[in-house]
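Our working data are protein records whose layout never changes between entries. Getting from the letters to the tokens is the skill we practise here. To make this concrete, we reproduce a full record directly below:
***
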Amino acid sequence: MKKYAINGSPLANRTTGIERYMLEIIKRIDKKIDSEHIKLYLLCPDNTEIKLPRLQNIEVVRLPSKGSKICIGKLRSYLKSNNICYCSMSGNLCIQKGAIICTHDIRPLIYKKYDPLMFRIKCIINFVSSKLRAGKIVTVSETSKKKIMEYLKVSPEKITVISNGWEHMKDISEDENFWGKHPNIKKGEYYYSLGSQAPHKNFIWVVENAKRHPENKYVVAGKVWENSSDTVMKEQNIIYLGYVTDEENKTLMKHCKAFVFPSKYEGFGIPPLEALSCGAKLFVANTSCLPEIFKDVAVMFDPDDYSFSFEQDRKISDKKIQEVLEKYSWERAAIQWIDLFEES
């Protein structure tokens, strides 16, 4: 029997992109896995709560931790003593020869300007450890695969693409109280953008576009960075909400004029897919992997063109939307992960 242990430490964090990827895929793997041939363990810190329903076929193991992360020494010891192959779905350090590591993107290696130096050094060490030690590298788009091949000189046979999905949106209800809490936001009268204000997310595009189009109203949700919050608040036609709940996010996506995603670099880009599943019109930057995924279902724009007008439009067929939603799904991703476990 093949045995794999998934590092579940990120599941103790707030659910954003990578955590969402892990959460949705692990839930579905648990329902589909053939436990007679593959044994899966989910390794979690001993002092934190993980955001998962009770698992039926994946065994949860608690290991000693520092904060919300498992102690590396204890992790190595557990894997070795139980003869288990290591798997990280969040791009951690590759601590075992032959492990499976999911590297969502290699932005910190490619671009110096987007991330602090120490963060970049940590990420680059993780990337190189995967190049040298991993048996398989998983990534989330063909564009990311090409970048890993180009910058890390990894052979294409070593890299498997397993993308993100959207079906979690079906399980989320709208927040019926949202409009009462935010009377200055009206259904169908705002452009919505979701994401942190990290530099590569290019939030400055929304600020600059708002300056040039005072007739438009913009609603933005996500983590605020200290060095950008003052700029945001100066624009009277931007409403900044900070973190929103899943229910609030779905409400905003369903009732916006359009969903706007100006990011300059993504490994995949879950928010536009979520918005598409809610019926929103998409305006998406024509950078990194975004054309690969959304070119047939969105109006693409230059993320350096601050004067872009939302009057630029195109007719998107229901057939194209359905094709994208079928291609990028958590169900499909879970099956691909199981296939990878069986083949490795």
Observations:
- The first helix runs from residue 17 to 32.
- Confidence is low (pLDDT under 50) at residues 226-231.
